[in-house]
Amino acid sequence: MARFLTTKRLIAGALAATCAGGATAGAAAATTPPAPLPPAFQHMTLVTPAVVGYPPYAYLINSSKIVGIDPDLSVALGKPLGQPVHLQVASFENSLLGLQRGTYFMVTGSDITAAREKTFDMVSYLADHYEFMTLASKPALGTSVTALCGLTISTVAADSSIPVLNADSKVCAAHHKAAITVTTFPDQGSAVLAVESGRADATTATVTNLGFVASRSPGKFRLDGPKYNYVYIGIATKKGNGVAQALAKAINVLIANGTYHKILARYGVTDDAVPRALVNPNPTVTTS
User: Fold this and answer.
1) Residues 144 and 222 in one domain
2) Which of 6, 151, 206, 253 could in theory staple to 128 by disulfide, Cβ–Cβ 3.0 to 4.6 A?
3) Cis preceding-peptide flag for 56 (omega within 30 of 0)
4) pLDDT-derived band of residue 230, with 50, 70 and 90 as boundaries?
């Protein structure tokens, strides 16, 4: 009899444990974020670089507060991912190196190119194009590539504009014109200062960045020169680790709930919005 009662107690205990376990599993399922990262990342501190000095993508105010499209979006992604995202100031060059070393789990503000998609998984979140900016007091450049011949153009180190400018320089040579001199800087702010100080004739960057800079100094600068390099702006992640798929899903959650458009409106760049984030999209952007 005692053995029977003990057995009953064991069965009852097992059933209670099973029910408790089921309740716990149900609670866990109920709190699962809408875009969870792969298991290997779910208990990690998520760090992403903030490439400041490149407004409105990322810049500092009051000497230390990081603001901009990218940091605001990065922090907002923490909610659908179910984990907070921490910002760390870095240069763009060091950002991609840090991604490869595992220091960062993602890098925002990366132009999506076919070459980069071979090395990284890329998630599109903006559409943009490149242009040039000169001092308004200087003669207009015009829209021809040959208008750049003989000029010194400032840009950010490792920027995707560099191979384009090098190719344009060959066009200059074919037309028996002077080459384009490309001078690089650690951030776009320094590249703009080079134009202001006369060390460069023009700077090149995304029209989002240049338009923001020009709007802060009315009448000082002119957006000018040939338009080129229509690109998706994306988030770079390590190839094949599953982070890109989670990020695309998280961005689409923010698009659906309005957070994404509020962030873009904050910086006056709603024209750059994409209808949906994609993993490794066709890097050729239609300009029509």
Assistant:
1) yes
2) 206
3) yes
4) confident
